[in-house]
Structure formats: C-alpha cells, structure tokens
Amino acid sequence: MRQLLSDKMNRRPRWACASVLAVVSSVLCQPAWAQRMLAITGATVETATKAGAIEDATILIKDGKIGAIGRDVDIPVAAQVVDATGKTILPGIVDPYYVVTIGRNSQASAQRTIVFRGRVFVIGGGAPAIATTFAKVADGLDSTKVDWTPAIRSGVTSFHVVTGGYAQSLLARPAGEDADSEVAISKSAANVLVTVSNDTKSLDVLRKNLKTTSGRSTTQRPVSTSGGRPSAAAIRAAMAARASAAASASPTASLWASVRDGKMPVFVNVNNASAVLHADAIVDEFPKAQVALIASGPNVYSTLAALEPKRYTVILPPAIDRRPNSADRINMPRMLSEKKIKFALSLSLGQSDFRVNQPTPLFGVSMLIRAGLDRQDAIKALTIEPAKLIGMEKEVGSLEVGKKADLLVFGEDPFSATADIEQIYVSGELVNE
Do residues 361 and 28 make contact, with C-beta atoms less than 8 angstroms apart? Predict the structure, then answer.
C-alpha cells in the first residue's frame, strides 16, 4: 500500500509540471510574438505612392515589414496596438547624398599660390584638389567616428553614404541598440561618384571611364589566312587573349559599364554652372546613361535648358534659392517639377541648416511647399525618388505591403512651421522618441 501511494505521488507532479510548463511557455511566447507584430491605428498615412494620403489608416507591421495598410485592416489579437489618432505618418527619409570624410579627403594641401596685382603670395593650408584616383567609401570609413545622430533624429532611415572626388558609395541604415555603431553598413555594392569642376583631370574621370566601357573589344577576332573558318588554335589563342584582357581590366569597369547601359546612375557633383555643361556634353554621347546631378539651385537654374528630363535626377538641399546675380528668390524644385525633371531632396547637403533645424527637420521643405511646390512631389523627393536613385525602391521609400516598416510619426502636419518628429521606427523598431 505504501509503495502504491508513493508511485501515485511520483506520477502526479509529472502531470502537474507538464501543465505548468505549457502555461508558462504560452505566457513567455506571447510577448515575443507581440513584439514582432505591431499595429499603428488612426493616423493619416502619407504613402508616397499613387494612393497618396490615407485618412484614419492602420499599418500592420510583421517582423519588421508592412503586412497590411489601409482603413479596413484586421488586427490580430497578438499584435501590440499603438493609437496614433490625430497624427500623421510619413515614410522614413532616404538621404541620397550623405557626405562623409575618408582618409584621402581629410588632408589639405600644404600650400596654395595666389596672384594679386602681379604679386605672388604663397598661403599655407589650401583646399585639397579634387581626388581623381578611385576609392571605396567602405574601405576608408570608420562609421563609429561619424556623427549620425542629427540625421537619424531628423528622420533619415536610409543613407547613401558618399565622399568627394572619384569613389564608390555605400548604403547604411540605423542599427539596433546593441550595435557597436549607430548605423549598419550594407554589404551590397553601391554607385559610382564623380566630382567635377572646369579642371580637365576631373572631367577626364567621367570622359575616359565612360568611353573605355563602350563594349568594343580591343582584341582582334581570330582570322584564317586561307580565307576559310579560323583554325581551332587561332580560336584558342583569341579566347586566351580576351581572358587576359578581362583579367587586367580596371576594377571599376563593371561599374562604368552599368552606367553606360543605364542600369545604374552616375552621381556627378558639380561646383559651377560651366561644369554642369561640360559634364552634360560628355554624357550626351551615351544615350542610355542616367545622371544624378548634385548642384546648387543657382547653378541648376543657369543650366536648366540643357538638362534632358529623361536623363537627369537633380539632388538639392531643401531651400529657397536666389536667381544668379540677383536678389530674386527662386523655388528650384518647383521649377524642376514644371519641367518634368525628377529631383530628390537631401536634408544633409546644407549642413549648417541641417543642424540648426533639427528640432523641425522639414522646415525647409515646408517653405518650398508654401512657395508653390506640390506637397506630394515634396514627399516623394524625400522618400521614393532617392530610393529609386540608389536602387532600394523595392525595400524602402514608400509605405507599401512587403516593404521595410520605416515610419516617421508627427503630432501635426509634417510641413507646418513647428512640426517635429514624435517617433521614428526603423524596420518596425522604435529607435527615437
């Protein structure tokens, strides 16, 4: 009898433990699932798509991506719900030209010479010449030494990281809280960058590299001295010659071939109107080539007639400019829109305004809208247009099902003079509040 009671007592704890473990497991798993599923309700959502703004919308986020968006979205019981009634949501901002300094650009030249009224003056610490040797931003960048905070707080959730001179850019996004750096660097290759002036050397970077990727082989085809088909030995020799030529080709050849074929744009930073025209004349020889032109508003204004709408996307800081040699104000983005020329806005291009306006990061854009720029054009210029430039339009740049849940939550109209960002989500994770 005593042994029977002992056996029953030993069996009962096993049943009880299994039951308790099942309940505990269910309770522990529930929050983990809720963290992967988030529903933001009641907001006005600017989608940056043809749908435009959706009133009283719900965004359902699953595993960092948008699972559903609209007015009639079923919210799963497991989802964490955030009430955003009365607020406005924009897609995360994509900065198409975020400038950083790498090793070769950090050193100024030892001296410069100035001639004034026939007298020669040598001054130390001159500005460095435009770099014409190729460099990868990824090879020279220490991301932990770059102050990314102002951009992230201003709503930038995707960075096209560039440097001056001739280089290859990289892509970056804000990293998680436990990361060593504020941003995570993408391993995928990005675009080719060229800085040009009236100087022949800088223009030759654009000219020579486009021409050397024309696709015309410098290796002769195998021929037969008898007038018939080439011999097997001649074919093998020709193939070996071509392989050797390919092996010795420039490491940037594939980049320039993609530019020439229109598969990716070349980012051309110009410092005066004359350089715009020089660059345009060079690129004009390659009908498929696409150009992301980085220039000041006045320089774009002076060369507007030369810019072919199908070829160019102009990158500008969000600011009202002055007409060259005049006090008259011009709204360059509006003028580009009227000319059907694509444009993108980079918050960081005007570094001084960028930091001063950090509490209200879209103040400059709001001034452009008040001066006649279409609201939807302004939103797209901050989001989907730069995403297209850097080849990320399938992942970011608009609020659509399947894209990364990069969201900016404003307590009022984002383009009011006092609007600040209340919350920033990157891949569904709250990174700033």
Answer: no
**CA-based end-to-end distance of the chain:** 67
- Which among 192, 148, 136, 193 has a CA at the least distance from the CA of 172? 148
Per the structure block, which two tokens stand in for 87?
A: 């607020």
- Kindly tell me if the per-residue pLDDT of 77 is higher than 90: yes
Express each pLDDT in 349-405 by its tens digit.
865 666 666 778 999 999 999 999 999 999 999 999 999 999 999 999 999 999 999
Could you tell me if residue 75 is inside a domain? no
14-33 b/e with 16+ CB inside 10 Å = b?
A: eeeeeeeeeeeeeeeeeeee
Q: How many domains does the chain have?
A: 1
CB 392 within 8 A of CB 86: no
CA-based nearest residue to 310, from 265, 341, 338, 335: 341
For residue 12, what are the CA distances in angstroms to 3, 5, 15, 17?
15, 11, 5, 9
Q: Give 231 or 7, the one with higher predicted confidence.
A: 231
Compute the average pLDDT of residues 10-18: 44
C-beta of residue 430 within 8 angstroms of C-beta of residue 38: no
Biggest distance spanned by C-alpha atoms of the chain: 120
> Is 175 strand, coil or helix?
coil
In whole angstroms, what is the distance from residue 362 CA to residue 91 CA?
13
pLDDT-derived band of residue 115, with 50, 70 and 90 as boundaries?
Answer: low
- Mean per-residue pLDDT of the chain: 83
**Tokens coding 110:** 């030892």
Task: Provide the H-helix boundaries in 99-196.
Answer: 137-140, 149-153
Q: Is residue 136 part of a domain?
A: yes
Q: Which residues pair with 81 in a beta bridge?
A: 39
Backbone angles phi, psi at 119, to 5 degrees: -100, 140
Global model pTM greater than 0.85: no
Indicate the burial class of 404 (C-beta count within 10 angstroms; 0-12, 13-18, 19 or more).
buried
**pLDDT higher than 60, residue 144:** yes
Q: Say which residue, 8 or 378, is predicted with more confidence.
A: 378
Please tell me which of 28-42, 105-119, 203-217 the model is most confident about, judged by mean pLDDT.
Answer: 203-217
CATH number, domain containing residue 363: 3.20.20.140
Whether residue 53 is contained in a domain is answered as: no
Q: In terms of residue numbers, what domain contains 106?
A: 93-222+230-396
Q: Do 387 and 400 form a contact (C-beta atoms < 8 A)? A: no
H-run or E-run covering 226: none
Closest CA to 376 of 368, 290, 97, 151: 368
Assigned domain for 74 exists: no
pLDDT at 252: 84
